[in-house]
Amino acid sequence: MAYDLYYWPMIPGRGEYPRLVLEAAGVVYRDVARLPESEGGGIRAMQAFMAGSGSRRLPFAPPFLVDGDIVVSQAAEICAYVGERHRLAPAGEADRLFARAIALTTADFVAEAHDVHHPLGVGLYYEDQTEAALVRAQGFREERIPKFLGWYERLLAGNASGSAYLVGGTMTYADLGLFQTMSGLRYAFPRRMATLEADYPGIAALVGRVAVQPAVAAYLASERRMAFNEDGIFRNYPELDAE
Amino acid sequence: MAYDLYYWPMIPGRGEYPRLVLEAAGVVYRDVARLPESEGGGIRAMQAFMAGSGSRRLPFAPPFLVDGDIVVSQAAEICAYVGERHRLAPAGEADRLFARAIALTTADFVAEAHDVHHPLGVGLYYEDQTEAALVRAQGFREERIPKFLGWYERLLAGNASGSAYLVGGTMTYADLGLFQTMSGLRYAFPRRMATLEADYPGIAALVGRVAVQPAVAAYLASERRMAFNEDGIFRNYPELDAE
Fold first, then answer.
1. Of B174, B134, B25, B115, whose CA–CA distance to A57 is shortest?
2. Which are the contacts of B125, defined by CB distance < 8 A and separation ≥ 6?
3. Whole-prediction pTM
4. A28 — contact with chain B (CB < 8 Å)?
């Protein structure tokens, strides 16, 4: 069984969340929009699917994952789908549902990170909303980042299994999501994160542990791993960063 | 088995999404923060739970649902949890997962509706970001509402069961979510919706059908149903509306 993942090929963006889970699980998948058109790939293949070429179950937006008749969209839902099938989810229903809540909350955090540079709307260029972005970025840096990171840190401290993962006794897709989000925050807000990170030692340790997990480490060192850039969710605009 | 739902008692907000599913399912639940403190309710009970009084599985934010050891947070996840247990979800895994994607996409739509009046951040008053809200509202009215509604309309037209519901052959929590969102949009953007709605006859018909479903109709006529107001997600600020 091979999965087809669809996402914009030029940015890690929200597609990187399910991609990391697929890689950590070591499962076979096609990254369709990054394949050549001669192999059925490219953006046009993705857009054709969204227009109905592959299923009546239309995704609203990428990323989406196709697994036979099944079309899973929304990054957190894809992560849960893959994680639960490939030993990257907690055992037990209560922890399994809690992992879903964590991943969905991470998706909200990511949406806020995006809106920092597009507070007035996705239809406008960043350059046309820089003043508004300066205001939004201040609240994000000073209130929202600490609020989210404080919550993750409390989860790590309160995990009943003592595993130092967010939920349950082993690494799950929820941890991979936090890893990717921390990577993005460090890229986009290096000065702020340098100041903040000492307050969240559990998160820093988790990020380090995820990065050296063999399948993750191999992926991060591969050409499949995309660098962050200024077309994506996490953008390094120095004017939006501060200690 | 009785569920405990927790959400801010003064607004329908995101809590109304799971509340509608609980009501449509006809299940017993306590709306904890709306109960008197003498019955273990009130905002303080909700905040105590979020601080760890009830579970190590801490929700990041309301709404959340407590069902014994299980704590489900994120509005769409609660809707799926209740819907799948009480015949308000599609049969079959592919449709079941598609309903989840629809509910999560609706949650994104709701977040955008909120950000129309808070584009610069949740830490600032509306009155301090009115100019930015005017810009964001225009894009929301002219681009985002049609994009989301167009997607729902296509789902209704493409439903293989011919049921005129979003997915599968019967009403599901995905339909209830669209109903609530349309109610909010009509409240917040009456002029825009009056202009737009004729373009989406399938949605209008669905909303009407949901409203007369007996359990839903009884709930809507009850005192439990809260009116929209200007502290919530959907706010009627006339300056943000236009044809």
1. B174
2. none
3. 0.97
4. no
